[in-house]
Amino acid sequence: MQKLQFSFPLSTCYQVQARSACRLTAIHWWKGQLLFLPLKPRKTIAGPTFIWISPSKNPARMIQATLLISLSCLSFYTLGSGVRRYDPGQGVTIQYLSLAPDTFDDAYVGCSEEMEEKAVLLLEKEMANHTRLRESWETAQKAWEQKRAGLTLPPGFRSQHGIAIMVYTNSSNTLYRELNQAVRTGGDSWESYMNHFPFKALHFYLTRALQLLRGGGGCSREPRQVVFRGVRRIHFVPKSVGDSIRLGQFTSSSLDETVARGFGSATFFSLRTCFGVPIQALSVFPEEREVLIPPYEVFVVTDFSKDGNKSLVTLSSSNQMCSHFNCAYLGEKKRPSCEFVPIGGQGDSLSKGALSLLSWKTLLLASWGFQLLGAGL
User: Fold this and answer.
1) Which residues are catalytic?
2) What is the Cα–Cα distance from 94 to 266, expressed in whole angstroms?
3) pLDDT, tens digit, for every residue of 319-359?
4) What is the pLDDT of residues 237-265, one digit of tens each?
């Protein structure tokens, strides 16, 4: 739980800050209104938001109203693919599915060769700063030398790509969790990625491995690959059926429903994926029949139901990918809209794509999982 910091200037302006508790970070009293002003425009909606309440000259009443709204905001916090809140009655976390605007989702379109050159030294630097990364990479490198002899790999597939997959699939350590935590939150801004994202080389190698293994070409509408994913302790909830969402991380799934159920049942996903890649032959645990889905694939929620205290979510690929980042390590800043990642050729703006998805402002709002009544949006 984030601490609230209260500031009471010598004026009628009262401020509440809850930086990571919600996207609205400053609340002011102005002419009988509560005025929400973004402290960090990149993390908030564009422009002020007004919350209308009854005018009052009583400071105590104003402070009470401010506290009520602020505390209601505190029951949510952002984490990559949506808003989370903890449900003590069920002992689980509820997470709202969204387009995950804070995800670091670079697909390296048009710069993969330059990144291949830079990633070699970048990996060495990052391993020097991260003991678990170095140990995991060195262990996977030895295992890769034994595994690669029996594999048929696509043109351009390098040892680093295979090692990255083995690092990710080795669940005997927690590195894959650390990577996905960084991916879910590392796309807050370009500066955040450059200064605080500790797995730049690993992210590139893993992304590139999936692209090379999948190959080019689009997806036919039907059939698409059906895979399954079980999750412990988190109830994933869409705002509504028909929503467009991204999973916002490298997402493990399985072709075997029984295997997937063994990983958890708080939420059980059935997915039709276009860009998920079978990595069984390269995995540390081939018996899991894993299909790895990249962070940028866009899905549509086709069904949602509850079975007791379990969430059942059905997703179908939109046959599209979108990213806020492209070639970020080479200096390209975060784009305000989630632009379609080309299967071949140049990217198209999200607003021009087949899905006709929402504007940047709405993409951010969609990730909250709640709406403040009367907000003038």
Assistant:
1) 229, 252, 290
2) 10
3) 999 999 999 999 999 999 999 987 753 333 333 333 333 33
4) 999 999 999 999 999 999 999 999 999 99
Measured distance CA(100)–CA(108) in Å, rounded: 18
In total, the chain counts a number of residues equal to: 377
Question: How many alpha carbons lie under 13 Å from residue 304 in its C-beta half-sphere?
Answer: 15
Exposure string for 26-52, b = 16+ CB within 10 A, e = fewer: bbbbeeeebebbbeeeebbbeebbebe
Element at 195 (helix H, strand E):
helix 190-196
The two beta strands, 267-273 and 310-323, are parallel
Q: Where are the domains of the chain?
A: 5-75, 96-366
What is the sign, positive or negative, of the torsion defined by CA atoms of 198, 202, 206, 212? positive
Interatomic CA distance for residues 236 and 243, integer angstroms: 13
Residues 6+ apart with CB under 8 A from 127: 133, 134, 137
User: What is the rounded distance in angstroms from the CA atom of residue 153 to the CA atom of residue 322?
Assistant: 27
Give the angle 349-350-351 at the CA atoms, nearest 5°.
Answer: 90
Name residues whose C-beta falls within 8 Å of residue 81's C-beta, 6 or more positions apart in sequence.
95, 97, 98, 100, 103, 184, 245, 246, 247, 248, 249
Q: Show Cβ contacts of residue 276 under 8 Å, excluding neighbours closer than 6 positions.
A: 225, 227, 251, 253, 291, 292, 293, 294, 297
Give which of 39, 77, 24 is closest to 372, Cα–Cα: 24
Range 96-366: architecture per CATH: Alpha-Beta Complex (3.90)
Q: Which residues contact 71 (CB under 8 A, 6 or more apart)?
A: none
